[in-house]
Write a structure and sequence with these properties.
371 residues; mainly beta; Immunoglobulin-like; 1 helix
Length: 371
């Protein structure tokens, strides 16, 4: 039995605000049933003229090409004469059954290997039937083309249309050792209204902006596809070294939504504040404390009495709550210094508590050094 874990970060402030941030599971298939759940998945059938890529396989709805085994989904490519083709495989989709806009979409997969194999975990726009491809948009979460020096590389790509032209952008991830057929690996995208980010085993390897006006496809709903193609324009055909059958084993497919729950426990709330350093005067160390009502990028800078910036003490993303740092002034001359904090709310989810996502704060305090 597989265990699905939801991860949240809980912050309870002294003044009574509770923040709960993280990923909430909204849909998954753990493949721990006896047969494929056809209320979630449709098995496509046919050759379809090579599926736009001159592919060589015939997709079937037979259990020999897609089935559940030991709590895994198995998509199996075979070398056999069927439907006028020399290979069979399976292609499963959630079109019109499960489709999503934004979120974290991931699967744990053990890939096939060998020249001519083309496994994929990807998404198409739910409106493909009305607008066609590439106007519907395509998000390739994982593709691999098999063969020597290829079985260790996964690709992530976005496809879209602009003025009737097909455009694409993507990157790739190469394993340090071994190939993707050796074990299960986690393939993930995190997709929001600004970016799509690609990960393998939680390692970020490519980021794509969906902000430009010509990328409206990526602000609509997409469905999920799992398939193993054989041959095609990109991988080329199998050769005598290619071993069949080949299997893609899928441990799970999961979709998460990013959530930020905010609950007021008491009547008062945490404030944005830069507290007086202590001790003050100090020699040579002092502690600076500050508080944030929400996640933000924070910078704390040090200035001399002439207003000249002499140091940057903090320049980083910080969680909501209370923070402190110890400042050591051994390398500075004695005198009076002023420190200033700046914080910009970069987390749009906090609009749920009526905070301007672009609000800008500045506050200053004095600190006196004696030597």
């Amino acid at each position: 039995m597989k265990l699905v874990i939801q991860i949240f970060v809980l912050i309870v402030t002294e003044s009574g605000i509770l923040f709960c941030q993280g990923w909430e599971l909204v849909w998954s298939d753990e493949f721990n049933a006896v047969t494929l759940d056809e209320s979630l998945w449709t098995r496509e059938v046919g050759w379809n003229g090579g599926w736009g890529n001159n592919e060589l396989q015939y997709y079937t709805n037979r259990d020999v090409n897609s089935f559940l085994e030991n709590d895994y989904l198995v998509i199996q490519a075979l070398r056999e004469s069927y439907g006028g083709k020399e290979y069979t495989s399976a292609r499963l989709k959630t079109q019109n059954k499960k489709f999503f806009k934004y979120g974290k979409i991931e699967a744990s997969i053990k890939l096939p290997y060998g020249q001519g194999l083309w496994p994929a975990f990807w998404m198409l726009g739910q409106n493909i039937s009305s607008v066609g491809w590439p106007a519907c948009g395509e998000i390739d979460i994982m593709e691999m083309i098999g063969g020597v020096n290829n079985d260790n590389t996964a690709y992530g790509t976005a496809h879209w249309e602009n003025d009737g032209q097909h455009l694409q952008s993507g990157g790739n991830y190469k394993l340090g050792t071994g190939i993707f057929a050796d074990d299960f690996h986690k393939f993930t995208i995190i997709w929001d209204h600004q970016f799509i980010r690609w990960y393998v085993d939680d390692d970020l390897y490519y980021t794509f902006s969906v902000i430009p006006f010509d990328r409206t496809e990526f602000h609509k709903e997409f469905f999920i596809i799992l398939n193993v193609a054989v041959g095609g324009n990109w991988p080329g055909p199998p050769n005598p070294s290619t071993i069949f059958p080949q299997r893609m084993e899928v441990d799970y497919v999961r979709v998460y939504e990013q959530v930020t729950h905010v609950k007021t426990v008491l009547n008062n709330s945490i404030q944005f504040n830069l507290f007086q350093n202590y001790p003050n005067p100090f020699n040579p160390e002092t502690t600076i404390k500050y508080s944030l009502p929400f996640n933000s990028h924070v910078s704390i800078s040090l200035f001399n009495v002439l207003g000249e910036k002499v140091a940057e003490l903090v320049n980083d993303e910080k969680q909501s709550g209370y923070h402190e740092l110890v400042f050591n002034a051994n390398s500075y001359p004695s005198g009076i210094y002023i420190y200033k904090i700046q914080a910009v709310n970069l987390t749009s989810d906090f609009s749920r508590i009526d905070m301007d996502a672009n609000q800008y704060f500045v506050e200053s305090k004095k600190m006196i050094l004696l030597k």
